Amino acid sequence: MGIKHLKENEKLLFRQTIQAPGTINQEDLRNLYIQRPNRKILGTPVTPLVSIYYFGERRYHQEKYIRRKEAVEKKYDDKIASTTSQRKINNYQFKKLKKVDKLNGFIENGNVWMQWGEPISVFDSAKAAMTRERFQEYLFGKGYFKNKVTEHVGNTGKLVTVNYKIDPGQPYFVDSIFYDVADTAVLHIVNDNVRNSFIVKNTRYDQDNFTKERERLDLLMKDYGYYDFNRQYIDFDIDTTFRTPERKIAVVISIKDPAKRGYHKKFNIDQVTFTTDVGVNAPDQQRQTRSYRDIQYKYYKNQYNLKILSQRVFLQPGEDYSRTKTLRTQQQLGNVEAFKFVNINYDTAGGKFIANIFASPLSRYEWTNEAGVSVTQGFPGPFYNISFKKRNVFHGMETFDLNGRFGFEGVASATSSENVYKSTEAGLNASLTFPQFIWPFKERQRYKFAQYNPKTKFTAGYAYTDRPEYRRTVISVNGTYTWQSANRKRLYSLIPLNLGVIDTANLSQSFRELLLKQHDLGNNALTNSFRPSFVNSIIFGITWNLNNYGNKERDSWYIRTQLESGGTIWNFINPKFITDLKLEYFKYIRMSIDVRKTDPLNKNTVLAYRLNSGFAYSYSDNESLPYEKFFFAGGSNSLRAWRPRRLGPGSAKPPESKNPKGDGLYDYSIEKPSEILMEASIELRQKLFGFVNGAIFIDAGNVWNFRPSNVVDAEGNITQDRSSQFSIDRFYKEIGVGTGFGLRFDFTFLILRFDVGMKVYDPARDQGDRFVLDKIRFWKPYAKEAADGTFYGYREPVIYNVGIGFPF
């Protein structure tokens, strides 16, 4: 705990607690602490940051960094003095500033170890008193005008615990609301929108609501044409003597008139001008001007379809100024991927009110190259990407993309329990994106839809996968419509055309034997998935992103749900021509939902949750799904205590490993494609030091099938095994549970993740033997050996996962 670093008469602030009624938000109060105890690792009393800080302090010499800073300044000053090239001067000045800023950080805040760590938290009674005052101010702002806060300081040796006792008293409520608005036009607008007010009768007084109400009224007036309206015109008078015995408050909301003009002026747009090529250098040329839908377009070269461009402009001459329409125009023009930036300002000179839109175009052609290491459900592998982009293909702000990818990955074999096999991945995709719906809508409807950022994307692709067991190629074609809600919190996606031709070749002998065995048993789902096939489907999806998912300031949600109907057309058309081509076809329904939530507990700790579920049901004669449409459980983004795609289905037992020692371990060599998925995770993430973050987690879930599977009994007879079939009366007993811990290395441009997964409850084990946490072994799991040389018992292996980014 770092007590050894205390000086004489100093004591360590070990803990702070708050004793308050349930009506008081204690998290808000904790954020007001003037002094905080040293950070502890994942709730334990261990404070590694203190040790890191003093480790660095013992090695810190400020004079060294001062001398180094002086040397850097002299070095670059000499270089600047020795050249007349302005380009070199600018380059030297930039490098000098960058290095000097870094050294100033070391001079002011210590070396890297000191910046990663934190000094011992020495208790200061004056800071405790200041915290008390902050609590009182907070409670007053929440309507508890007669609150009492006391702090009790407890000492145990050199450890100090401070307990703040909160007695908020009785809250005051808003009883009456009056408006003092001289301008009747303004008063009319306020009254028409009063239902959205943050100040409501019979609610507890809250100072934050007054701040929000001032902001709301300001934005409201600016949406009704009052361009130069300002928050300074809004004032609140609060009378706490109004019916005092009943703790009632009267609120007077005043909107003053401007002192000089004497009234609030409504601004009407006289003209809209749109300069489409700001920053373009065109010597000896004058910009042309062309009017379309009452908008004056200015450009050197007419390279945009003004009919399409004007759909994203929501400002029109003759209309009142609107801040919302101004922002919407800026956002929607930025969404079409044609401009570097879009700025909108208003010119009030000359007695006119002119809206000026300035846009700087992006380069029409773009090449990018990318090389790196990818980590998905397997092991790291190198990749290389190359992409070409052409913008404004047909002068309607269309975008053409051509992407190529080649790489290797380490994957767990589908028929072997060996650790790593090489998988070769290659692909080529071409897409064409239009900034509108390609559909015979009327022109008026196109302008109406433009505020929802509509896009149509056509894609054709070729994917090649070479694994140890098979070689698989997929040729795909699809068309996608996407659009957003007006508040941009929901994204909709409709894929009415999704076609794919899949071919699998070069099956390994072991994989071929596996498929033949499944075929002989009558389990054709897996065998049909690896026949040459034609897949077609319609997909609709909705994605919600609430409060910018992943932010560290407040709760946030991410929800994605998708419904897919495969082979729908074969319900109306005979697929004989498909079968004549010896292609397998599929008819199925597939639905999935992925819910994620982050809950910041404090600035260094986040609690994250995930619920992922789905089902896929085949109703074609082959009772099968395309392999890519099955659900799987296990891996670095799923249940991390199981190998990728190896959990389940249900309580079905994998075969025991073929280790001659009889180690009691299962052979997880075969992937487990299934039709029903349920999984959930909870993860506590905490910043440890510098760019290193820690996490502990619990994962739970499994996969099941709708139909029982066939197995061969001891006599060689084929029987039905219902252990893999979903059953409402036992599925909860088949939920696999894993736990573990991990590290996340936040390098800003990427997050490298390392997780250690350990099984807690394995549904594949016999009843009474499913809790296996006590059998975990980190290195070389094997059975215990008896004195006579026989082996008994087993040890569960720990699973090590490497990934990029957070698991959810």
Automatic annotation (TrEMBL):
Primary localisation category: membrane
Domain of life from the UniProt record: Bacteria
GO cellular component: outer membrane
Keywords: Cell outer membrane, Membrane, Signal, Transmembrane
Keyword Signal: yes
Annotated localization: Membrane
Region (Disordered): 644-664
Domain Bacterial surface antigen (D15): from-to ranges: 384-771
Annotated PANTHER family: SORTING AND ASSEMBLY MACHINERY SAMM50 PROTEIN FAMILY MEMBER, TRANSLOCATION AND ASSEMBLY MODULE SUBUNIT TAMA
Stated name of the protein: Bacterial surface antigen (D15) domain-containing protein
Source organism: Chryseolinea soli
